[in-house]
Amino acid sequence: MSMASDHPDGYVSDTAHRVIGEHVTGPCLQCQHRRCRLLEWAVKTVVTSLQPDQQVPLDQRHPLTLAARRVAEVHWPGGDGRCTPCRRADCEPGGLALTWLNAINDPWSPTLASAPSVVTLRQITGMD
């Protein structure tokens, strides 16, 4: 068995992937309702550590996508254009989650009654 890390950033990236994988099966002790700051950290760590030509391994792509959807749903802007938990228009966790979903062309959008349209969200986040 090799002690070398499977990820370019070593232990931190390994931990982030483990956190994401664990959230596929259920909430952790840090989860509060649907929001989990630990999961937000893990998605941020994985998404920001990717190099332009780097691919997420196939066995980790689906868990990352599910985690990104959950983070994006929690941080989806309300009717005023601001993230509900952060109260900011430029919410970092939501923006990073949407960056991943956009990068893989994921067609997901939340099923929230007061959610703005995808077009409006792209304008709000500057992803146009």
Query: Please, how many helices?
Result: 5
Bin the helical content: 40-55%
Overall 3D geometry?
A: globular
- CA radius of gyration is 15 Å
Which characteristics define this entry?
128 residues; mainly alpha
Write the layout of secondary structure elements.
Elements (H helix, E strand, L loop, with lengths): L10 H15 L11 H13 L8 H17 L17 H12 L14 H8 L3
Describe what you observe in this structure.
It is built from five helices and no strands. Residues 1-5 have low confidence and may be disordered. With 128 residues, it is mainly α. Helix 1 (11-25) packs across helix 2 (37-49), helix 1 crosses helix 3 (58-74) and helix 3 (58-74) packs across helix 4 (92-103). The chain has one domain (11-50, 58-125).
Quickly describe the structure.
The protein has 128 residues and is mainly alpha-helical. The chain has five helices and no strands.
